[in-house]
Amino acid sequence: MAGQTFDRTEKFEQYEIPVRNTREEVPLQYIKNADWIEVGPYGRGWFARYTDEQGDLYTVPVYFDHHFKCWTEVATQSDRMQWVKRVALSDLKLDILDQEADPEKWSTPREPE
Fold first, then answer.
1. 109 in a domain, yes or no?
2. Is residue 63 within 8 Å of 84, Cβ to Cβ?
């Protein structure tokens, strides 16, 4: 069976994050392509990098959502408040399959055909 990604996040909505994740808060199996680094005005935190079609490298602040068990992209407003704006897009290589997020649900034996 092919992996399913983000079925559990269909009702995802933007929300404000009062404090960014610490390094220790993200379970190791979910780190994927995220790096704990310091980036310019954002300071230290979780970031993912991607290269666009023109070859330009971008660094995107990300936040791990423990409820949905997914990475999200962060936007900073002019008042320095940070918001989760969407589930991280696949080009950031942070996808967490439903099978990874809830292995017990997916470890049931197959029914006989």
1. no
2. yes
Range of the domain at 40: 7-103
Residues 34-80 have pLDDT tens digits of: 999 999 888 899 999 999 999 999 999 999 999 889 999 999 887 77
DSSP the chain: ----BSGGGTT---EEESSPPPGGGS-GGG-TTEEEEEEGGGEEEEEEEEE-TTS-EEEEEEEEETTTTEEEEEEE-TTS-EEEEEEPPGGGS---BHHHH-HHHH-SPPPP-
- Whole-number Å distance between alpha carbons of 53 and 96: 24
Task: Give me the number of domains the chain comprises.
Answer: 1
Q: Is the pLDDT of residue 5 over 60?
A: no
Confirm whether 59 is domain-assigned.
yes
Residue 47 lies inside a defined structural domain of this protein: yes
Q: Judge if pTM exceeds 0.70.
A: yes
User: What are the Cα distances from residue 75, in Å, to 10, 54, 62?
Assistant: 20, 23, 9
